[in-house]
Amino acid sequence: MKGYRKKRSSKSGLPPGTPVHIGEQKLETMSLTALTYSEHALQEIQTDRVEEVLSLATNPANKWITVQGIHHIEGLQQLCAAFGLHPLVVEDIVNTDQRPKIEDYEDYLFIVMKTVLWHDHVQSLMVEQISLIVGVNVVLCFLEGKDDPFVDLRKRLHSEKGRLRTMGSDYLAYAHIDTIVDQYFPLLEKLGDDIEQLEERLITQADQEALRTLHQFKREMILLRKAIWPLREVLSHMERGESTLIQSSTHIYLRDVYDHTIQLIETTETYRDMLAGMMDIYLTSLSNKLNETMKVLTVIATIFIPLTFIVGIYGMNFTFMPELEWPWGYPLVMGVMLILAIGMLWSFRNKHWI
Length: 354
Known about the structure:
This protein is of the alpha+beta class. The protein has 2 domains: about 5-285, CorA soluble domain-like (Beta Polymerase, domain 2, 2-Layer Sandwich); about 290-350, Magnesium transport protein CorA, transmembrane region (Methane Monooxygenase Hydroxylase, Chain G, domain 1), CATH 1.20.58.340. It has helices at about 75-80, 85-95, 150-160, 170-205, 210-240, 250-315, 330-350; strands spanning about 5, 25, 30-35, 40-45, 60-70, 100-105, 110-120, 125-135, 140-145. A hairpin with a 4-residue loop joins strand 7 and strand 8. The mean pLDDT is about 85.
């Protein structure tokens, strides 16, 4: 059921390699999109039945199969068994709490990435896991829900122009990674604009709403950091050429996306430092507001100290007080008190205390 999220505790006590879907079920059924292509030909299959794509496992042509809805364990096991995937790989595919990583199984590479998208209806970042299997002439892509970040990549493959048709599965895998990395840039740009606006707001208006927004940004930067930082290790492993599945002609493209990843990491760290400094700005702003309030109260209290002293003297109940008989005693005392108050206010203003 959509909205229900399984946790890691549901795997407790099960043998290694037992596939249990961990995460939220985002689709009712599994759907598959299979592309077989060469330089001058392309065939596409869209289905919700795994049996219709199992025969592609023995097809020597280049293949790209996208699976949406990884909660369907039985169908996922059938597909993975047809392509000879290890049970531990299947277990990691359905566990959406994985850290981005790469594992080399000699016959294929297993890559885990995270896509982070901004959803307006919840006003927060949504993280989804993407699993890639890169083998000889095959790329298997596993998505959690209906959001497919590779729609434009599929359109490029439909076109006979470009390198996707002529290059191997390693280049297609690079194109997947490059698509995910490129999607981080507009997201970080948006967050950067929002962070700058929040910084200006904190200087003039440090309220509880601004504090809640600041904490939300800090949580979002933690999510981004956890998604982006491990990609450097993934790309470094692929670029070093330790796997025979990665052709030397693809290394230059991997270096390019590696540089983009480093840029994302530096931007993320810059924003994290800004948010850490903004907490100091918030506390300083609160302290300044408190100091201003205390200064006003101190000025008021200081003005009333001599006035209270005078009132206290003439509030004593002695019979023989010479001023009690003066006709102008009351106006005189009030005048003295008024002169004292005005004089102290003038002195404070002259010293720039108020």
